[in-house]
């Protein structure tokens, strides 16, 4: 992975975990990015040197103003490319996400604003996440995860986290945004969550691990 992409992915992760307002632990970053704690420490040292983060040993890391803007630029670029690749070129959710990773960190602001206009200024990416506007306004709604729902609840799929394997899995089980489902129950020993589609009564089982990254309302 190129270092430039690696830095922006770290900044994006810190932002998404709440690093604009609170300290985020190295452990939380490592778990989110699926990297080792030592890799996190090395990258945070570089980001602190560049002025993008403030690190307080044993307490965590927060974004500086410049670090937050860099993260928002990446999120805006990435999600607009996802819209283009998915809606205009017909790529799958997972393919759109993977290819947007190869494009987002090199695009300048003029190009991204032109892409935004071309696409009709979309508010959300194909997997339901908010796109920052051209002024970098960004206030995503905090939603409940599927894993936190109660048996018997009727829920609507709102969005999914940005993860290639998760998006492949979502498409495989046909758990689409805006669909309404009944939470029928859970299998024992941390087994999958059983959902029933409220339109056609089809049943799917969603792994508990995946359910932690699927957001509902």
Automatic annotation (TrEMBL):
SMART domains (UniProt xref): HTH_DTXR
Coarse class of the protein's main subcellular location: cytoplasm
- Localization per record: Cytoplasm
| Domain HTH dtxR-type: start-end pairs | 1-64
Q: Which GO terms describe its cellular component?
A: cytoplasm
Could you list this entry's UniProt keywords, alphabetically sorted.
Answer: Activator, Cytoplasm, DNA-binding, Manganese, Repressor, Transcription, Transcription regulation
PROSITE patterns to which the protein is assigned, alphabetical: HTH_DTXR
Q: Name one Pfam family in it.
A: Fe_dep_repr_C
Q: What would you give as a GO molecular function for this chain, any one? A: DNA-binding transcription factor activity
- The superkingdom of the source organism is Bacteria
Family from the record? Belongs to the DtxR/MntR family.
Give the quaternary structure. Answer: Homodimer.
What is the designated name of this protein? Manganese transport regulator
